[in-house]
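tokens incoming
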């Protein structure tokens, strides 16, 4: 086994005169199955194609894109495992100081809007070589989308990048079809028939039964049009039921989205994860201390893809889809056994999961052949009557992994869906979880406690979370271990006003501890919540939604989650005054903060008492 070539010298050592594809990525080159660059490149290699990697090219230097020569079939372009804008900026649009996907964590080695910049850079030198975009950044920008960082509606990234094609979602199927078509001599301009792709065209009369979305001009003119368009897109993300979507750009032609690629079978997933990954970063990064992102995932196992959880703020519906796809036990055990042979392995498997760790089966039998329902969710607002709730396979898998020699502990860190757990009539999974797979704290994401907010988030009623924590405590007592549920909460989600933020703060007070982290809602492309944020409408109902947009209100909502932090005092105080909740400022155990001007507060209390006694005296006189 060896790394894929990153230099001409490495090409020569591999006996390659010309590469078929060159993969340009915003991440450093890590040859591990948790990195999209490695998966797509190894899949192509397994299908007989020579692939080279240009990782983090200097976008200010035209020659940086020529170091491997011109590929015979095309360039593949991705921002990396993360959207470049999310990688660079916090939700308050401040620059981050650390990039876990770069050597030594150094920031600034990729540009903003990386796929657009890289694609334009390639096109300057290679005028006619096919360029195919992929990965999370391109996938979620495949049609017109709201861009939080510029606060504007942007066109499909295909137009701004000058690329020929987008392979969206998890691209193993589509990238092989693209490669085979190009290798057979078909022009990239004629690749209009591949599932999981988006292309440009000047005419659409040949398309079969397409759905015409509002054109870009209408989207710009009225946000209601964008909400309408997004609803249609949201209903067309399943491979079994989706239709072709068309978005017009007037004189610039059309952007056409083909239906998604079909989900991977278990055998296909096994084949992909059994490919000969080096399982580490390229040696050229050793001097910089390696790639920080590898630390957490090096000894983790991806057991599934897809999620039918349906959280409004999550982009999984548009990227991996709602159909759950799983690897076999044999495949996972092979990878785990391989881990134990790594000299750095200390006996701990850090995670066994995916988007949702405890999803190992389709949501229902219908989903296998007819797809997921376009107009309803599997778990929200309550579990569907057809939902299959079964942890048996996952429990069996965890037991098998624990029994592997040299494995001391198997953790579950990718998160579990607690409402799915509560829908299970058996406690087997919870008992297994608490006895063997929690490292002191179990992370779950109720996100909020106010019913109107939870409804817009696509999360279950708060009573479900409370039932879960009660069951956790009862079953955990039997283990004799000190283990706790660590909830994640989100501030400033569409639909959440200051009063509901105060309600959440009161709940946190009653929990008895203050969260170390608070997540402010981040409007990333292609989520229901982002559509609400931009339009002020719920695209599924077209009803108006309150949206906390002003930075100061967002700061107050975030501060309320961590009201004990002295730095947040003034923001918390202002929020309480604005909502008429001065009763939460004081010395009572139910108060969130104490008054800082104690003398003034005492005078205020004294005057209040004086008014009360005065009223009592007048009352007695009247009697």
């Amino acid at each position: 086994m060896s790394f894929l070539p990153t230099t001409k010298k490495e090409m020569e050592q591999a006996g390659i005169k010309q590469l078929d594809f060159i993969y340009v990525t915003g991440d450093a080159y890590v040859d591990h199955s948790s990195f999209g660059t490695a998966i797509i490149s190894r899949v192509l290699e397994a299908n007989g194609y020579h692939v080279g990697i240009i990782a983090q090219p200097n976008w200010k230097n035209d020659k940086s894109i020529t170091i491997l020569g011109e590929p015979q079939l095309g360039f593949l372009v991705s921002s990396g495992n993360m959207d470049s804008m999310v990688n660079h900026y916090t939700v308050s649009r401040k620059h981050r100081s650390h990039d876990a996907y770069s050597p030594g964590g150094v920031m600034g080695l990729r540009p903003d809007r990386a796929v657009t910049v890289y694609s334009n850079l390639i096109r300057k030198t290679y005028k006619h070589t096919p360029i195919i975009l992929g990965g999370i950044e391109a996938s979620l920008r495949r049609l017109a989308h709201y861009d939080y960082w510029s606060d504007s509606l942007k066109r499909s990234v295909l137009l701004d990048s000058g690329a020929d094609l987008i392979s969206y979602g998890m691209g193993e199927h589509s990238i092989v079809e693209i490669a085979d078509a190009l290798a057979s001599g078909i022009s990239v301009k004629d690749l209009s028939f591949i599932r999981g792709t988006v292309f440009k065209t000047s005419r659409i009369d040949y398309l079969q039964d397409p759905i015409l979305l509002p054109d870009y001009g209408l989207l710009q003119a009225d946000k209601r049009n964008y909400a309408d368009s997004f609803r249609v897109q949201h209903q067309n993300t399943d491979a079994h039921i989706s239709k072709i979507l068309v978005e017009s750009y007037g004189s610039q032609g059309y952007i056409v989205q083909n239906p998604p690629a079909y989900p991977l079978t278990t055998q296909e997933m096994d084949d992909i994860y059994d490919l000969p990954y080096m399982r580490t970063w390229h040696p050229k990064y050793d001097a910089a201390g390696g790639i920080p992102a590898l630390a957490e995932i090096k000894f983790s196992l991806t057991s599934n893809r897809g999620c039918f959880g349906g959280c409004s703020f999550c982009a999984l519906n548009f990227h991996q889809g709602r159909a759950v796809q799983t690897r076999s036990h044999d495949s996972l055990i092979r990878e785990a056994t391989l881990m134990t042979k790594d000299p750095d392995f200390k006996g701990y498997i850090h995670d066994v999961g995916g988007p949702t760790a405890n999803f190992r089966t389709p949501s229902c039998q219908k989903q296998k052949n007819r797809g997921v329902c376009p107009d309803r969710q599997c778990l929200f607002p309550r579990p569907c009557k057809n939902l299959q709730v079964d942890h048996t396979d996952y429990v069996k898998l965890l037991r098998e992994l624990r029994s592997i020699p040299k494995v001391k502990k198997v953790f579950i860190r990718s998160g579990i869906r607690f409402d799915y757990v509560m829908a299970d009539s058996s406690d087997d999974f919870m008992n297994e979880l608490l006895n063997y797979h929690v490292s002191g704290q179990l992370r779950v994401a109720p996100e909020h406690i106010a019913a109107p907010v939870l409804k817009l988030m696509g999360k279950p009623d708060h009573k479900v979370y409370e039932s879960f924590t009660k069951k956790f405590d009862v079953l955990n007592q039997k283990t004799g271990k000190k283990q706790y549920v660590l909830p994640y909460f989100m501030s400033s989600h569409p639909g959440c006003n200051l009063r509901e933020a105060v309600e959440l703060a009161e709940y946190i007070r009653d929990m008895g501890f203050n969260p170390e982290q608070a997540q402010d809602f981040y409007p990333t492309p292609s989520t229901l919540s982002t559509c609400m944020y931009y339009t002020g409408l719920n695209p599924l109902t077209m009803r108006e939604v309150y949206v906390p947009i002003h930075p100061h209100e967002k700061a107050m909502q975030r501060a309320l989650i961590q009201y004990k932090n002295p730095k947040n005092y003034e923001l918390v105080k202002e929020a309480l005054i604005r909502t008429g909740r001065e009763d939460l400022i004081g010395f009572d155990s139910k108060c969130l903060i104490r008054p800082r001007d104690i003398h003034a507060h005492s005078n205020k209390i004294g005057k209040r008492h004086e008014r009360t006694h005065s009223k009592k005296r007048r009352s007695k006189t009247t009697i």
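note: Confidence is low (pLDDT under 50) at residues 608-623.
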